[in-house]
Design a protein that fits this description.
Helix content: under 10%
Number of helices: 3
Largest sheet: 15 strands, antiparallel
Strand order of the largest sheet: 16-15-14-13-12-11-10-8-7-6-5-4-3-2-17
Length: 298
């Protein structure tokens, strides 16, 4: 790269000691409790993955005479890659590989030199994403995938240092939300949605851990989301048509007569679109690679 890939490696090689101690250097363990278990996890530092090995290959993907891609190997296996997507001399994307498959990935989407998101893969498929939504250098939102859809989301909505909101999704559409409004680590408010419409809110007014008040909105509730959310930014399949309610005694509508909802290609998450664009940019950058230098890493 323009900086020879070595000046930026000073911070690229820093790894969170908390993550290393939790997993012995492997992918850190993350709580996988369902939406029913409101775990008030703490926000975590967002640190760059270590990208170092036996040897490296520097690639000039744009033909301007400067390396903007760095591949690192251990033996014959690729360990990781670093990419400068916007050619400003700084690492924007880091990808870690295991057994030939993508295992972890980090992005600086706004090219300010600070990480915004990191993603984890299982057998090459996206499993979860961790985001810094207030740009303070800490993970404050965790997005879990259910196939191509967002399955659930946990976030520090008030940016007070721990998760206070837990969202559940069905086929990418918001279905339940639980809130810790007073920051005591327990849920005080429950919301239920159907097809993106708020239909019920329950409250725990005496803070005994159980809802004791409720509001029912039914079909009059506000619509918060009309489209399913893609977890990885890829186009989503059509949602199954919702059968129209039948009048008692009326013949049933023939199968397939319902009007299916339109497919959604981008979902409602800006991070999904950004992630997809960053991958596209990186792929284009590698369209015509030329090896600039290859040798052992320092």
């Amino acid at each position: 790269m323009r900086y020879g890939m070595h000046t930026t490696r000073a911070y690229s090689l820093v790894v969170s000691m908390a993550w290393l101690s939790a997993c012995g250097g492997e992918t850190p363990r993350v709580e996988t409790a369902g939406i029913g278990d409101a775990v008030p996890r703490k926000v975590e530092p967002l640190r760059r993955f270590e990208c170092d090995g036996d040897r490296e290959a520097m690639v000039d993907a744009t033909g301007d005479g400067y390396a903007n891609v760095r591949h690192v190997f251990e033996g014959n296996a690729q360990k990781c890659s670093e990419l400068d997507v916007n050619m400003d001399g700084r690492v924007d994307v880091t990808r870690m590989f295991k057994d030939g498959k993508l295992e972890r990935e980090q992005h600086d989407f706004d090219f300010d030199g600070r990480l915004d998101e990191q993603s984890y893969y299982v057998n090459g498929k996206l499993e979860r994403k961790e985001l810094d939504t207030d740009f303070d250098g800490r993970v404050d939102a965790w997005v879990y995938c259910s196939g191509p859809y967002v399955g659930r989301l946990e976030r520090d909505r008030h940016h007070r240092g721990q998760v206070d909101t837990w969202e559940g999704y069905e086929l990418g559409l918001l279905s339940t939300v639980r809130y810790d409004d007073n920051h005591d680590g327990r849920v005080e408010r429950w919301e239920t949605y159907k097809d993106g419409r708020l239909i019920q809110v329950r409250y725990d007014s005496d803070l005994d851990g159980k809802p004791d008040q409720e509001e029912n909105h039914g079909t009059d509730g506000p619509v918060f989301a009309k489209d399913a959310v893609s977890c990885d930014g890829s186009p989503l399949p059509e949602r199954p048509a919702t059968p129209a309610p039948q009048t008692p005694g009326a013949p049933a509508a023939p199968a397939g007569s319902g009007t299916p909802s339109a497919p959604n290609a981008a979902g409602g998450a800006a991070t999904s679109a950004s992630s997809s664009q960053a991958r596209s940019d990186a792929n284009e950058a590698g369209a015509a690679p030329a090896v600039v230098a290859e040798g052992k890493t320092p």
